[in-house]
Input
Amino acid sequence: MDLQDDLTVEERLCAQAIGWDFLRYAKRYDIHDLARQVDSAAVSLIKEIQGILDDLTLDDPECFLRIDAIVRTFHKYDLPTSRHWEVE
Output
């Protein structure tokens, strides 16, 4: 079953409008620059998580401190997670 099968007429028209707006945006801006920004953010996130994993001060038997630090890092990058919802 395709996602489009479940869309109402309004949702289809909205999706088309979003698509056209994105194409207009892509023509005005360097889409490769956007990809570089996304890549840069992903690398930064991975480096921060690596730092958390290597941080000896976050050493508890259950790894709660590391998990909480990683969850906070995800939220810092506006990447919500359902784990530890109380952090939000």
Notes: The longest helix spans residues 31-54. The CA atoms of residues 36 and 42 lie 10 Å apart.
